[in-house]
Specification:
5 helices, about 60% helix
Length: about 100
Amino acid sequence: MSDFLHKLHVYKSIGDYATAETFFNHYSQVDPIMLRIRDIVLANKVPRRIELQPNLFLNGTNVEYKGYESTFMGVIRSFVERFSKEEIDPVFVEFMANQKRMRN
């Protein structure tokens, strides 16, 4: 991959558009075998793993473990219980100010 990108960069740097186009088009063609491999990969695709960390709470001398469900609500609950209101409020204000930029 690094050799491919290096060659493409050299062609671009010296302004050899014709050679760069031929080179790139040759390696970007998709044959029927690769289409079949793509279909197999998509058929076996698993959902992205949700990165979720449990919390530990100190209750006197006891340490309590609290796990959460592996959903987006679990992630939110984990963060809400991990941080104090004073730490969360500025983040929430920033989120609300930029909410229109977020994707659904």
